[in-house]
Amino acid sequence: FMALDKFELALADALKSIDIDPGFWKGYSRAINSFLVLGDIKHTEDYIEKLQNNIAGVDSIKFNEIPKLKALKGFNESIEKFYDEKNFEECLKNLENALKIAKACAQYQNLKAECLIMVEKYDEAHQIVSSALYVNSRDTNMIFIQGLSFYYQGSFKSSIGKFENVLRIDSEHTRAKKLRQNAKAIQDKVD
Fold first, then answer.
1. What is the rounded distance in angstroms from the CA atom of residue 83 to the CA atom of residue 150?
2. Which long-range contacts (CB under 8 A, 24 or more apart) does 124-133 make?
3. Which of 29, 23, 105 is nearest to 64 (CA)?
4. What is the pLDDT of residues 45-81, one digit of tens each?
5. Any alpha helices (H) in 55-191, and if so which ranges?
6. Helix, strand, coil: what percent of the chain each, to 5?
7. b/e per residue, 26-42, with b = 16+ CB within 10 A?
8. Residues 9/22, Cβ–Cβ less than 8 Å
9. 99-127: string of b/e by CB count within 10 Å (b at 16+)?
10. Which pTM was predicted?
11. Distance of CA 165 to the CA centre of its chain
């Protein structure tokens, strides 16, 4: 499944192999790799610890994932810091590096699309959104990001429609509620 970029299926397969045979170290290794590619830092750490605790002689095994995990944690801290500071260019640089390790992390893809919008790279953001919506047309985060793109490009009617789509799927989506309200207020002034 890993070769087919079906990381969720690869993870499920690895976890099932561990359930069947808790001493199967390759199952742990595959789970660790899957968690890492999906950007799940906590579970990556947990399974590295489980592997080291449950299988004798594993300390001698050199995991390629351990340095990647440390790097990903560093990128993640920088992403959070730069996003909070609204330094979207630096946030994007760290997201690019994080996505080299966690290439299937939906959270990083969402954040990258949002940051691209904030630096007015709408076409690049649209490519990410289109790819994600092709896989899952009900992805509220990506529909929200579509609305965000329309909002920042001044297409308020289109943004309102996207935010309303998000709210039909997830009525508690606070950012969609707020921006829909803002877009309606601006649209009312224009009309």
1. 21
2. 125/149, 132/106
3. 29
4. 998 888 877 776 665 455 678 889 999 999 999 999 9
5. 65-84, 88-101, 106-118, 122-135, 140-152, 156-169, 174-190
6. 80, 0, 20
7. ebbbbbbbbbbbbbbbe
8. no
9. bebbebbbbbbbbbbbbbbbeeebeebbe
10. 0.86
11. 21
Phi and psi, residue 62, nearest 5°: -90, 120
Measured between its terminal Cα atoms, the distance across the chain in Å is 53
Which residue, chain included where needed, has tokens 């340095």?
67
Beta-carbon contacts of 160 under 8 Å, excluding residues fewer than 6 positions away, are: 147, 180, 183, 184, 187
For the record, the structure tokens of 125 come out as 């953001």
Rounded Cα gap, residues 6 and 10, in angstroms: 6
pLDDT tens, residue by residue, 117-150: 999 999 999 999 999 999 889 999 999 999 999 9
**Measured between alpha carbons, how far is 15 from 72 in angstroms, rounded to an integer?**
22
3-state secondary structure of 158: helix
Six token digits for residue 140: 């509220």
